[in-house]
Amino acid sequence: MRAPASFPIRLLVLACLLAPALTACRYAYFPLVPKPVEVTLPARVTTATLKRDGANLLLQARVEGRFDPGYLSVAWFDGAQELGHDSVYLDAAQRDASFRLEAPNPGAYRAVISFGGTVLRQVELYEILP
């Protein structure tokens, strides 16, 4: 059985009537260049070493990233016992800091480094088991 000759014409008319309804759900505008993403990374400690220097512990740290000038602080611990605090002022020109703590006896030492009240890194030197 053959379809009548008017069948392709009816299908074409139906497709023309439905075309506006089918394209109405599509986006009419695509931005060619997306908006730039602005990312501000917090200050971070890129290098931190804790080592023994005779009867002292020596901590050296470097802060990278964009930050407002402020104090880089260190809290010293031997196991769970807090030994003391120290801080040094850093700005864009001065990004390196060195801290020294008198510690003649071997121990399980930790130094917690913070900047602006935010803890950035902890470094450890285990001369004995904690």
Q: What does the model show?
A:
The chain is mainly beta and 130 residues long. The chain has a domain at 44-126: Immunoglobulins (Immunoglobulin-like, Sandwich). 14% of the residues lie in helices and 48% in strands. The protein contains 1 helix and 7 strands; from the N terminus they run αβββββββ. The protein has one helix at 6-23, and strands at residues 44-53, 56-64, 70-78, 81-90, 96-102, 108-115, 118-126. A 4-stranded antiparallel sheet has the order 4-3-6-7, with no helix packed on it. A 3-stranded antiparallel sheet has the order 1-2-5, with no helix packed on it. The longest helix is centred in the N-terminal third of the chain and has 18 residues, at 6-23. The radius of gyration is 33 Å and the shape is rod-shaped.
Supply database-style keywords.
mainly beta; Ig-like domain-containing protein; 130 residues; 4-stranded antiparallel beta sheet; single chain
Distance between the termini: 92 Å
Radius of gyration: 33 Å
**CATH class category name of the domain at 44-126:** Mainly Beta
The CATH architecture of the domain at 44-126 comes to Sandwich
Tell me the fraction of residues in β-strands, as a range.
over 45%
Helix content: 10-25%
Which term fits the overall shape? rod-shaped
Largest sheet: 4 strands, antiparallel
Number of E strands: 7
